[in-house]
Design a protein that fits this description.
Shape: globular
Structural class: alpha+beta
Helix content: 10-25%
Number of helices: 7
Radius of gyration: 23 Å
Largest sheet: 7 strands, antiparallel
Number of strands: 26
Strand content: 25-35%
């Protein structure tokens, strides 16, 4: 509430309270028209209804940003939609952006967690008359270490001010729009340090991205990942009632735009402080662990693995019309393949990664715990329904400590290695993770596996490929 005291002085407790609960609201912007959108976390039934879950990690829910169509815009290249229960107005994700527009996301960061981030993506691009869905990132993510908030400068790499703090994100392809918008937001009371800028590289013709509202113009969006918190009540409240507002703003002064290009020039570098191939005996230990797992089972199908680095870097995906599966500069994706790279057509990554897990069989993933080696903040291995691109079950690094002892009980490197078992029936196996069966997933389904290593501790970005030892996997009869 507001209350006048002592001749007109105001104690504005309500505004302070609302900033804490809901985060910043967008102030008046004299030079912009504003279209309000919405933000919500992706629900399983929603993505199954639309036929694609976009590789959502089951341990890290995805928050999506929705916007209504422009006037005269057609819903071509959109993936999901939602409707306002009060007005019935339909909003879509992804969306299109003209040269004079920006996306703005304002609100409150998640409760304490090991990981969250906001990343800009290009979803749909066109090769002549053929649409492609790279789902590729086009800028560094704003994560819990690099985000700017009301309580934290983006140059402050500590976690002080990273959680439950007000922030805004601005994403535009035009430098003039970005600068004018930032100036007016600061004039409206939002601290400069709390405004995080994404530069959408729509001026780079090699990426096949185009601004505009025509059917073959590119679609894009912002995505929030949230690993979850130890405080489950706070986690559920944040997911069910996210304190975030989303807008599309358009400047009313139509000057010549100055579009961003050459996106990699602004990326933070990757590095590795403790390269895993240089840890004494670690490569040999993984070989022995893999052999031991195979020796304890019959009816084995083992597969080669490829990291396919050109597939898992958003800029390369856009240039080559390939699939990125929602890559992030915060991580390194290992996609476990059942064919070698030269046998895999560039647009068939998921088909090349697909395999089956028959009845009375289990999947075993053998790898390095990248968190235990001191390289990353957290890592996970996840199993997906290949047809729907739908995350079924995930194992996090802390859940796998000690899992190798059944196979190499005397290894001094046991904390550095893991065996994750994914099965239809886990019974009492501590290191087994149950594959759920439903109308979409059965013994006849096809699956794929992704290992992720998030945020290298020195650069607060994903690790270098050369510094990580990749996983292996087999399917074996129980």
């Amino acid at each position: 509430y507001q209350r006048r005291v002592h001749g007109g002085m105001k104690i504005i407790l309500w505004i302070s309270l609302m900033n804490y609960v809901c985060g910043f609201n967008l102030p008046p912007l004299p030079s912009f028209s504003i279209t309000e959108g919405s933000f919500e976390f992706l629900k399983l039934e929603q993505c199954l209804h639309f036929g694609n879950c976009f590789a959502q990690n089951p341990s890290t829910p995805y928050g999506l940003t929705y916007l209504p169509l422009h006037e005269f815009e057609l819903p071509i290249g959109m993936i999901f939609n939602t409707s306002d229960p009060k007005t019935g107005k339909i909003s879509y994700v992804p969306s299109r952006l003209t040269e004079y527009e920006a996306y703005v996301l304002c609100g409150r960061t998640p409760p304490p967690t090991d990981y969250y981030s906001i990343t800009p993506y290009v979803f749909v691009i066109w090769d002549g008359l053929v649409p492609h869905i790279p789902f590729g990132s086009v800028d560094d993510a704003a994560n819990l270490y690099t985000i700017g908030t009301e309580n934290k400068s983006p140059d402050d790499r500590s976690l002080r001010g990273s959680f439950n703090s007000s922030f805004c994100v601005v994403a535009s392809s035009d430098e003039i729009t970005t600068n004018l918008l930032t100036k007016e937001m600061v004039s409206g009371g939002i601290p400069q340090q709390a405004i995080n800028i994404f530069k959408l590289p729509f001026g780079d013709n090699s990426l096949h991205v185009h601004s505009g509202i025509l059917p073959r113009d590119s679609t894009s969006s912002l995505l929030l990942r949230y690993l979850g918190s130890d405080d489950k009540q706070a986690q559920d409240e944040y997911i069910q009632h996210p304190p975030l507002q989303y807008y599309r703003v358009r400047r009313t002064t139509i000057d010549q735009p100055k579009q961003y290009n050459n996106p990699e020039s602004g990326f933070r570098p990757r590095a590795i402080p403790n390269p895993e191939p240089e840890i004494p005996s670690l490569n040999e230990t993984i070989d022995r662990l893999y052999t031991s797992v195979k020796s304890k089972h019959t009816d084995i199908s083992s597969f080669s693995i490829e990291t396919l680095p050109e597939y898992i870097l958003g800029i390369s995906c856009l240039r080559n019309f390939t699939q990125c599966l929602g890559d992030s500069q915060d991580t390194l994706y290992y996609v476990l393949m059942n064919r070698t790279q030269d046998q895999c057509p560039k647009n068939k990554l998921l088909e090349c990664a697909a395999f089956s897990i028959p009845k009375n069989h289990s999947l075993y993933v053998v790898g390095v715990n990248h968190n235990a080696t001191g390289n990353v903040v957290y890592s996970s291995v996840s199993v997906y329904n290949q047809k729907l691109n739908y995350g079924l079950v995930s194992a996090l690094n802390h859940e796998l400590i000690g899992s190798s002892l059944l196979y190499l009980p005397e290894s001094p490197l046991s904390n550095y290695i893991y065996v994750a078992k994914f099965s239809w029936d886990c019974s009492d196996d501590r290191y087994c993770f149950t594959i759920p069966q439903d109308q979409y997933t059965s013994f006849e389904s096809q699956f794929y596996v992704v290992e992720r290593a998030y945020i290298q501790r020195k650069t607060y970005k994903g690790p270098l490929l050369e510094g990580i030892i990749g996983p292996r996997f087999i399917v074996a009869k129980d």
